[in-house]
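User: Let's play a game. I give you a shape written as C-alpha cells, and you guess the letters that built it. Ready? Here's round one.
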C-alpha cells in the first residue's frame, strides 16, 4: 500500500538527508553490479563480447517488466517493508556470486544469482521510488533529484570503482607475473565484500528508514476486482497526455549511451592489438569507476540544482546534448589509441560529467510524467521503458562490435545519438502544476 501523502516531520528536507542518500545508494548498487561489474568479471573470466552483451543485457528484463508486479507493492505490505526485505534478498544473491565464481560452472551459476539480484533490485526500485514520491513534495522532489541521482551513481564508485579495484588488486599480476589470487578467487572475495556491504544497508534501513503513520490498507476483494484494479493502473498510464511521445523519449533517450555503457569496459580492458586500450583492472576501476564517477556525481548535483532553479523546459535539450555528445570521444579513442592514461581519463571524465547532467533531466521528466493517481506504479512503468531502452540496444551491440571492430563501432554509437536528440526536441512536457 502507499505510505500516506501527508508529510510527517521526518520527511522534511533536513531529516530526508538521513535516508535519501543511503536509500538511493542501495538502489543503485545492484544495478551497477548486474550491468557493469558482471561485464568486467565475465570479460576477465574469458567470456566473449557477444555473450557478455547478450546475457547481461537480458538481465534488464526484470526492470523492464517490473510494472507487471508493481501493483502488488501497493496492495500488500508497506513500501518500507518491501525495501528492507529486498535488500536482504540482494545481499544473499551477491553472496551466491561469491560462492560460485571459482566453480567450473561459474557462468550459468553466477548468471542465476544475477537474475535473483535483478528481480530483487527491480522490486526494491518500485518500493523505494514509491516511498520517495509519497513522502516528498513536488518541489522537494526537484530539489533532491540531483542528490538522489548522485548517490544512486555514487554506487558506481562502490561497484565499477572500488569493487573492480579490489578484484584487480587481488587478481592482477605484478611485475613478476604473480598475483595474490586467481581471477576467479579475486572476484569471489570482491563479491563477498559487496554482500557484507549490502547486508549492512538492510540492517541500517530496518532501524532508520522513516516509519510514517499507517494509512488505510486497500481492500482486496475478489480476483476479478483485483484484476480490474491491476488493469486500470496500465490503462490510466496509457491514457496520459502525449503518451506516444513520452514512451518514445523513454526508449530512445539512452539509445547511444546504452551501447557505449555495455562495451566501454571490454574496450578499455582489451589489448591494443585487439583494438582496445589495454588498461589493467585496477586502472579501469580508478579511471572509470572512481574519477569518472566523481565527475558524474558533480554533474548530477549541478543538474538537479539547475533544474530546480530554471525548470525542465529550459534545460531538457541542452542536457540531452550533454549525455550524448561526449560519446563521440570514444571513436577518437578507438582510432587514436593514445598511450597516455591521462588522455583516456579525460575522455571518461567528460563523458561521465555529461552523463550526470543528462540523466538528471531524464529522471525528473519521468517523475513529473508519473505524478497523479497510481504514481508508484506509473513511475515503475516509466522505469520499465527506461530499462527496455537499455536492454534492446545492449543485446545486439556486442555482435555489431565484433563485426565492425571497436573503431567503427564507436562511430556507429556516435550516430546513434540522432534519434535521442530528435525525440527530445519534439517532446511535449507535462504540466507539473496539473499533476500536484
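Assistant: Ready! My guess for every position:
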Amino acid at each position: 500500500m502507499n505510505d500516506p501523502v501527508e508529510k510527517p516531520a521526518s520527511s522534511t528536507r533536513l531529516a530526508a538527508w538521513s535516508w535519501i542518500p543511503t536509500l538511493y545508494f542501495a538502489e543503485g548498487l545492484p544495478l551497477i553490479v548486474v550491468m557493469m561489474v558482471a561485464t568486467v568479471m565475465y570479460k576477465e573470466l574469458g567470456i566473449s563480447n557477444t555473450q557478455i552483451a547478450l546475457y547481461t543485457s537480458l538481465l534488464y528484463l526484470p526492470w523492464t517488466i517490473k510494472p507487471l508486479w508493481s501493483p502488488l507493492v501497493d496492495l500488500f505490505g508497506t513500501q518500507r517493508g518491501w525495501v528492507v526485505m529486498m535488500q536482504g534478498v540482494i545481499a544473499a544473491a551477491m553472496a551466491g556470486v561469491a560462492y560460485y565464481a571459482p566453480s567450473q560452472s561459474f557462468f550459468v551459476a553466477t548468471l542465476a544469482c544475477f537474475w535473483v539480484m535483478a528481480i530483487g533490485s527491480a522490486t526494491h526500485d518500485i518500493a523505494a521510488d514509491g516511498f520517495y514520491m509519497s513522502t516528498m513534495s513536488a518541489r522537494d522532489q526537484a530539489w533532491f533529484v540531483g542528490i538522489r541521482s548522485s548517490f544512486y551513481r555514487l554506487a558506481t564508485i562502490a561497484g565499477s570503482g572500488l569493487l573492480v579495484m579490489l578484484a584487480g588488486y587481488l587478481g592482477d599480476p605484478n611485475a613478476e607475473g604473480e598475483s595474490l589470487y586467481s581471477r576467479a578467487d579475486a572476484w569471489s572475495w570482491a563479491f563477498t565484500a559487496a554482500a557484507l556491504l549490502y547486508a549492512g544497508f538492510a540492517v541500517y534501513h530496518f532501524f532508520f528508514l522513516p516509519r510514517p503513520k499507517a494509512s488505510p490498507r486497500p481492500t482486496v476483494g475478489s480476483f476479478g476486482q483485483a484484476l480490474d484494479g491491476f488493469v486500470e493502473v496500465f490503462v490510466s498510464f496509457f491514457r496520459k497526455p502525449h503518451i506516444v511521445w513520452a514512451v518514445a523519449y523513454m526508449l530512445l533517450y539512452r539509445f547511444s549511451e546504452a551501447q557505449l555503457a555495455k562495451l566501454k569496459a571490454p574496450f578499455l580492458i582489451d589489448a591494443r592489438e585487439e583494438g582496445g586500450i589495454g588498461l589493467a583492472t585496477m586502472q579501469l576501476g580508478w579511471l572509470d569507476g572512481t574519477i569518472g564517477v566523481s565527475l558524474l556525481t558533480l554533474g548530477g548535483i549541478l543538474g538537479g540544482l539547475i533544474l530546480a532553479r530554471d525548470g525542465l523546459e529550459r534545460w531538457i535539450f541542452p542536457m540531452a546534448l550533454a549525455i550524448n555528445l561526449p560519446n563521440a570521444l570514444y571513436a577518437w579513442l578507438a582510432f587514436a589509441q593514445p598511450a597516455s592514461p591521462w588522455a583516456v581519463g579525460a575522455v571518461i571524465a567528460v563523458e561521465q560529467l555529461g552523463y550526470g547532467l543528462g540523466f538528471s533531466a531524464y529522471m525528473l521528466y519521468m517523475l513529473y510524467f508519473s505524478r497523479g493517481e497510481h504514481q508508484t506504479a506509473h513511475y515503475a512503468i516509466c522505469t520499465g521503458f527506461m530499462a527496455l531502452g537499455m536492454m534492446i540496444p545492449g543485446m545486439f551491440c556486442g555482435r555489431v562490435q565484433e563485426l565492425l571492430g571497436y573503431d567503427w563501432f564507436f562511430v556507429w554509437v556516435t550516430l546513434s545519438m540522432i534519434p535521442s536528440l530528435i525525440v527530445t526536441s519534439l517532446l511535449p512536457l507535462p504540466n507539473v502544476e496539473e499533476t500536484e
